[in-house]
Amino acid sequence: MKKNIIRIAAIVVIIASLIYIASATMQYKKAETEYTELHTYAYEAEDKDIFTVDYDSLSNINGDFMGWLYACGGNISYPIVQSHDNEEYLKKTFNGSRNIAGCIFTDYRTPGFENYQTIIYGHSMNDGSMFRRLIEYKNEEYCRQYPYFYIYTSEGIRKYEIFSVYKEKPDMAALVYEDKPEDRAKLVRNIADSSMYKISAPDNIVSGGGAIVSLVTCDVSNDSYRIIVNGKRTE
């Protein structure tokens, strides 16, 4: 009798797992289709030297739209939003659909790109989408291959050079929500010193809002840790 109960329980677990995998796969595909369609409004020219963003159309689709993130040579290319909290877009896409892929969003405590440091979150999805490619920055060679990322806003293009990549628990990460000018130099130093490998990057950095952007995602090897890729604005 006991063995039968164990067998039944095991079967139930297997069925539930298969249902979850099937559901997740369907959501991955729906999110991929949705974000692919959004590239109608943000796309590369054929020579790949020009990236065009239709800010008005994207703002009409979602009033929380802030800009477009282009990173990892285009392997990360998504709209950025900001809400009144950090929960809304965890399981909500840019078009408003409920989906585990969610959306790329900035921390609500760092309004717009006004803070010296802007914090941007995204899921590390099993299908390789959203911020999954950030995990590759644990490899120093990948950083040498893709040392820059870009944020396109209606006010202009912001170019960021990666100067630190590190792994840390969320409450220990160098993420600042209150912008205090007197603490900026210390913040940059802490971020640089935390890097898991030395990155040869000049000390130049554009002052003012959005000078530092930290891209944050879960580490697939241990989701209680975050992988944080930090860029300093050079343009």
Please supply descriptive tags for the structure shown above:
single chain, about 240 residues, alpha+beta, Sortase, Chain: A, eight-stranded mixed barrel, two-stranded antiparallel ribbon, 4 helices, about 30% strand, globular
Concise account of the structure shown:
It contains 4 helices and 10 strands, in the order αββαββββαββαββ.
Could you describe the 3D structure shown?
This protein is an alpha+beta fold and about 240 residues long. The chain has a single domain, classed as Sortase, Chain: A, CATH 2.40.260. It is globular and about 40 Å long. The termini are far apart. About 5% of the residues have low confidence.
How many distinct domains?
1
**Number of extended strands:** 10
Could you give me the name of the CATH homologous superfamily? Sortase
As a whole number of angstroms, the C-alpha radius of gyration is 19 Å
At the first level of CATH, the class is: Mainly Beta
Helical coverage, percent range: 25-40%
CATH topology: Sortase, Chain: A
Q: Strand percentage, roughly?
A: 25-35%
What CATH architecture would you give? Beta Barrel
Determine the N-to-C terminus distance.
Answer: 70 Å
The largest beta-sheet arranges its strands as 3-4-5-6-9-10-8-7
What would you call the structural class? alpha+beta
Morphology call: globular
Q: Stretches where pLDDT falls below 50 for ≥5 residues?
A: 15-22
Count of helices? 4
Q: Whole-number average pLDDT?
A: 88
Largest pleated sheet: 8 strands, mixed, barrel
Order of helices and strands: HEEHEEEEHEEHEE
